[in-house]
Design brief:
two-stranded antiparallel ribbon; 13% strand; hydrolase activity, acting on ester bonds; 394 residues; 9-stranded mixed β-sheet; Lipase; 41% helix; hydrolase; lipid metabolism; lipid degradation
Length: 394
Amino acid sequence: MLRYLVILLLAQGILSRRDEVDTYLKAIKRRITQDGYPFEEHSIETKDGYILGVHRISYSPVSGRSPKKPPVFIQHGLLSSSNDWIVSGPGKGLAYILADAGYDVWMGNARGNTFSRKHKTLSPKDKRFWAFSWDEIGYYDLPAMIDYVLKKTGRTSLNYIGYSQGTTSFFVMTSLRPEYNKKIKSMHALAPVAFMSNVINPFLRVLAPRISKMSYLQSILGNFEFMPSSKFMALAGAALCRRTSVFKVLCKNALFLIGGFNPDNLNASLIPEIVKGAPAGASINQIIHYAQSVVSGHFRRYDFGTSKNKARYGRSDPPDYPLKKITAPVHLYYGNNDWLTSKKDVQILASKLPNVPYNKMVPNPKFNHLDFMWATNIYNLVYGDLINNLKAYT
């Protein structure tokens, strides 16, 4: 199986694409408007020059128009994009559910993904474009997007929902830039990822010691972008994973090998739509940073090596993120069968956060990492509680 994983990585590196932001933008706009919801695309420049695409659903056919709708910001996970919040369709996709509940929904896109592949001076073909991990996403991207949303809506604070890496980057932002805690009414962490020493995923546990070093992973991929999306791969994935395809079972198992096995909770007919927009691309450094977390047992900044660490941090090892500075209320939602977010690691995180009003395992023993986006019964298991928790801060 490891051999096939390496082949997949090589294929993704070979099939790295030209910039197709407009193609994917038209697709998500068409999908949202066809579902009967309004769509807005906003471009936001970070202080270090990245241009991010942020998508907005300001109202819904259910809730109607209103200038006073409270803003809620959703941030995707690793290799994902805003597309993942609408792909399930009305009544199931989180963005639609929030809009129906009366929220002004803003969906972020981190640097390097399908909708955020632009920079003031750098091209995605330049390796310098990819010189970032989720440390920079938390320090630069989230603050830029949150400040933009608050200015646009005339608010001083908003509710934040993060999934997987969207929780990691939030913890980076509010620990390194604690002034942003005041701009967060509440934070809702779906499958929170910070500490990773107890991760269950067997491939990650085996590979982490090797891929935690830049030279090894780069030698496999040959570049600095990890699993970029492409028009060709989207079409191929949709064809191979369609309901009538003999390869459908492989598509399902590929998802389970990432986040944990739960075939009863996966709508297999949704897979062709999922693979049209995923994986959405990321920097190799994001993968390396997570691998470093598995190996070290710490939730800390990127490890550049002893000499570079001394120059950057003033010490040989990277410093831990100061989680005690996170004063915003953090709500933790996690699964029992999550191969990337273990129960032990979530509780380690909870013990270090000063304000955790909600800390609950999803009441389904098979609930896995990807179920937080696409489970067939996601509303009853997670989103219902999420909406109720949001109301306390609205």
